[in-house]
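Design a sequence for this backbone.
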């Protein structure tokens, strides 16, 4: 899993937080509204019950109602209301005089009680009918009140959730819009580059948000430090190259003199020493140029791999080069890389190294050494890909990877059943000088 996949997303975390907040807010507001509305619902239903009792009191005072003691009177309206509302007329002595069809046939109260009260499954309101002590009890079922409260609660919760979700969608769109400057900054950084030759860097442009201004300022300060360090490294490389060239040039001069003065049997050996010193001078210059920050392959030519390897010292290792193997690249840099890879093979117990070029921009080496495990190969490859080679790999692989990257490519560690195999992929240049060369200068 890559770091980008493993790292938490600010947008996702904010979206999840907003979702949870919207649900909690909706439920909390719904509960608060329900608690506030429940009391109001009870008051409204009590008012309606009182009004119903006053209306029924007028009806039961009619001569027709007074002439039917102890009976039932069809005064309630039909439909659902008749099932949830009932009334009784009770005498002073507790005797039931009149009742609606829904009312029980036993009095709700044995003694006259005015005002609101409760009975089993009913909410009551008692209203005196006159001086004779008769009482009218109007009642409403408790189920009616529970349903009213439930409807109010459901409406409050759904309304609060709807408002919360609308707020969530709006806030989510605002979060996406406010995070866009971060993506813009990331895109600018992806195309951001330093120009060590001029000591300048491409501009990031103005910050789109006030909070990003410190980031821009920190990046500009970092750019200044990087350019100063690059300039220092380039100056050091130039001085080091001059300091190393001078003794190497002196060695070459002394060898040239020795060639003229020494006996014939030693001339061939001294000539090889002089050639090795000349190649060493080229490799030193190439390495110093490579390790300058931002170094790139400058003079790419078509190189005969066999000729290149013939000039490299490889004691104790037999080199096998595929016929006609050629590679397009910087001769000095590739020589430095091959020298280190062959030396690595020899130090790890290889007796033979096979070299071929599957394409004009790919150089492959394979040896017959003990090799490494698949886990170690993946560890080395990850270190090379991430440019985190400190303490993981030696100079040989690191140098070969740097040379490949200087050509716009990369170093790949190949799977193999025996030995060790690497492949240097070199990006194809826009234009290649197809002359034959060995070392420059």
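Sequence:
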């Amino acid at each position: 899993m890559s770091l980008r996949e493993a790292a938490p997303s600010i947008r996702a975390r904010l979206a999840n937080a907003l979702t949870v907040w919207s649900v909690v807010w909706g439920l909390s507001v719904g509960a608060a509204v329900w608690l506030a509305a429940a009391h109001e619902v009870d008051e409204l239903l009590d008012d309606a019950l009182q009004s119903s009792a006053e209306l029924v009191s007028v009806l039961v005072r009619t001569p027709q109602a007074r002439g039917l003691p102890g009976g039932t009177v069809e005064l309630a309206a039909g439909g659902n209301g008749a099932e949830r509302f009932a009334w009784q007329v009770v005498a002073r002595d507790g005797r039931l005089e009149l009742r609606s069809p829904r009312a029980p046939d036993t009095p709700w109260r044995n003694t006259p009680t005015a005002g609101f009260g409760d009975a089993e499954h009913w909410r009551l309101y008692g209203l005196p009918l006159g001086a004779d002590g008769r009482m009218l009890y109007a009642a409403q079922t408790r189920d009616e009140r529970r349903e009213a409260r439930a409807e109010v609660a459901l409406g409050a919760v759904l309304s609060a959730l709807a408002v919360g979700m609308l707020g969530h969608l709006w806030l989510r769109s605002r979060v996406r819009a406010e995070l866009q400057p971060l993506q813009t900054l990331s895109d600018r950084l992806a195309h951001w580059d330093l120009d060590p030759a001029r000591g300048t860097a491409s501009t990031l442009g103005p910050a789109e948000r006030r909070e990003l201004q410190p980031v821009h300022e920190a990046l500009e300060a970092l750019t200044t430090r990087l350019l100063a360090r690059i300039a220092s490294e380039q100056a050091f490389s130039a001085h080091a190259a001059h300091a190393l060239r001078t003794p190497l040039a002196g060695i070459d001069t002394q060898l040239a003199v020795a060639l003229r003065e020494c006996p014939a049997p030693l001339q061939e050996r001294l000539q090889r020493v002089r050639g090795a010193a000349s190649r060493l001078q080229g490799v030193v210059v190439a390495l110093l140029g490579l390790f300058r920050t931002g170094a790139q392959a400058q003079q790419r030519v078509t190189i005969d791999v066999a000729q290149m390897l013939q000039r490299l010292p490889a004691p104790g290792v037999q080199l096998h080069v595929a016929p006609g193997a050629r590679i397009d690249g910087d001769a000095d840099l590739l020589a430095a890389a091959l020298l280190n890879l062959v030396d690595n093979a020899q130090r790890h117990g290889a007796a033979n190294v096979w070299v071929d070029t599957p394409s004009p921009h790919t150089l492959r080496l394979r040896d017959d050494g003990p090799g490494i495990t698949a886990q170690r190969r993946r560890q080395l490859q990850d270190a090379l890909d991430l440019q985190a080679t400190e303490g993981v790999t030696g100079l040989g692989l690191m140098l070969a990877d740097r040379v490949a990257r200087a050509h716009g490519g990369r170093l790949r560690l190949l799977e193999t059943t025996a030995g060790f195999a690497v492949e240097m992929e070199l990006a194809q240049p826009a234009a290649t000088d197809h002359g034959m060369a060995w070392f420059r200068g």
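The chain has a mean pLDDT of 77.
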